Cytochrome b-c1 complex subunit 8 (Aquatica leii), 148 residues
Amino acid sequence: MPKSTRPSPSTHSVSIRLAQEAERARRINETVARRKATDHEMNVDDQQTRPVNTAIAVSSTLKLVIMGHGFGELYKLRSIVTYALSPFEQRAFAGIISKGLPNVFKRTMDNIFYVLPPTLGAYLIYTSVERAHAQSLRKNPDDYKDEE
């Protein structure tokens, strides 16, 4: 059987993309030329209004098209599966009373021995220091009994 002269699908899609990008670049260049002509007619300084540099944008998109990928398709993730559930099918507060409150109690009891001793110690130190400070501010009545 003779070989087909028709290009392969990947080559064909690249040539279609290149043609589309060339058409897009042509339209952008026409728009820029039209704007330049309008600006020139209105005596607007070209230094103040510079047209969009289309050569950079077109060359970068052509590079992506030549590579056979578009933006967001530069690589393919493999062996990563993600699942999602519609927000309308989720029950955000399911089991909050029957499972949530006992879970809060259990977690509190698990951590109470890590939190309570330092807190209790800090409270006792604070109250004793405050009591000692208040006592140091008092006047001694024996110091003033000779003044009367």
